[in-house]
Model the fold of this input.
Amino acid sequence: MSYSIVIPARYASTRLPAKPLRDIHGKPLVQHVFECAKKSGADDIIIATDDDRIAEVARGFGAPVCMTSVNCATGTDRLAEVVKQQGYDENRVVVNLQGDEPLMPPEVIDQVANNLLQRPAASVSTVCARVASAEELFDPNVVKVVFDAQGYALYFSRAPIPWNRDQFPTESLAANSPHFRHIGLYGYRAGFLGRFVTWPACVLETTESLEQLRVLFNGERIHVAEAIKRPGPGVDTEADLRAVQKILATA
Done:
């Protein structure tokens, strides 16, 4: 298995300013993510940023850095810039590991890369986990996914899909329900990223505020698998940061 990891890291987070550099037990958040990535089977790991402060810190703990444009609207745009700068072959698999995911299991990173390597019909791979509660199912901040018998995505939504006609809208969850939450870890073919960033946002994407719907709208396939290990929480807020600090204190 041969693949690359790119870790997009933005300084200007609206909910948690300077997020990649926030301290967790003497190390910046982005270093914890990098060290997590190093436990995977990736050949190379690059931190992609547009901020000199993040670049300086990353180089200080030995991470390769790729400087990208301040005009990158999304992490996917930043990934596409890295692919272009690095000159990756169009079939190279590149995993996008978000810079706020210090508890992503390395086995799951490998799983995403391997699933894409094994499926030439797919341009993108990702993972999901079973929805654990009705609260999670009906939370619009939790993205749900449905997929076909071969594991290819049919749709992603902030709504509770599939909709149980006979049970809903009561806020309950049946045993063994077919509901899955999407986990935001992606594998891409390098050549696909070059195409993706040329497409305008589609109506489904803007309606749901979900960038991955642009992939399906344009006829490309996303493979979805249930994660072999459930990831820990990411860091979006001060409360998330405290939770991760607590988890890593006992790791």
Notes: DSSP finds nine helices and eleven strands in the chain. The domain at 1-100 is CATH 3.90.550.10 (Spore Coat Polysaccharide Biosynthesis Protein SpsA; Chain A). The first helix runs from residue 29 to 38. The two ends are 28 Å apart (CA to CA).
